[in-house]
Write a structure and sequence with these properties.
The protein is of the alpha/beta class. It has nine helices and ten strands. An eight-stranded parallel barrel has the order 1-2-3-4-5-6-7-8. The chain has a two-stranded antiparallel ribbon with strand order 9-10. It is globular and about 45 Å long.
Length: 214
């Protein structure tokens, strides 16, 4: 299982995540987020670009041209579309970066009907808790919504996952579960991660994955 740590706001922590073996780091380009990269990284785009970790830019209903520019400026490996983007919009980006389409779970969704229009319009799905702030709430949705869904594409599981959820993740089984996405429950303050907690989580999840493969 891959690991993505979202809401990073410093080059130093990008490098720390890379050294810990984290697969993806999320950079939030949505101004309404408490973890918006703003001036914290805008003047360090070359340093961001030169880090080896796979960087995911998080956008909410952003114009296509702005996303394309960010891909170039920050060396984004993937874009995570967290708003109400259409399948046609997603298709426009698929040859420029990996596309992760987010679906916000409120509790009564029919997963397969929800994702069907995007099956050919993105590389990954991501399921997160539905909030007014478009993520980072620290709240989990009901993972049982996914258990009976085909999904049909590798997905990231997000929404309030914390350091104590390794056993719960181990118990959650789905053939298309690709990665876990963590954020606010690993922070000392908004946009600043507790790297000891991240290190512990990476280690414990790695052990569980190794046991599962035996």
């Amino acid at each position: 299982m891959k690991i993505k740590v979202c809401g990073i706001t410093s080059v130093e922590q990008l490098r720390q995540l890379e050294s810990l073996g984290v697969d993806y780091a999320g950079l939030i380009f949505f101004e309404g987020s408490k973890r918006y990269i703003g001036d914290k990284l805008y003047n360090n785009n070359e340093s961001v670009r030169n880090t080896g970790i796979k960087k995911v830019g998080v956008f909410v209903n952003t114009e296509l041209e702005i996303i394309e520019e960010a891909i170039k400026e920050y060396g984004l490996y993937a874009v995570q579309l967290h708003g109400d983007e259409t399948d046609e919009f997603c298709l426009e980006l698929m040859d420029k970066a990996k596309v992760i389409k987010v679906f916000r779970m409120g509790g009564d969704e029919t997963i397969d009907a929800l994702v069907e229009p995007f099956q050919a319009a993105c590389h990954y799905f991501l399921f997160d808790t539905d909030t007014s702030t478009f993520g980072g709430s620290g709240k989990q949705f009901n993972w049982a919504l996914l258990e009976d869904a085909t999904v049909g594409k590798p997905f990231f599981l997000s929404g309030g996952i914390g350091p104590d959820d390794v056993e719960k993740l181990e118990a959650f089984q789905h053939p298309y579960l690709y990665a876990v996405d963590v954020n606010s429950r690993f922070e000392t303050e908004a946009g600043v991660k507790d790297m000891e907690l991240v290190k512990q989580f990476v280690s414990e999840l790695g052990v569980k994955n190794a046991i599962k493969k035996q």
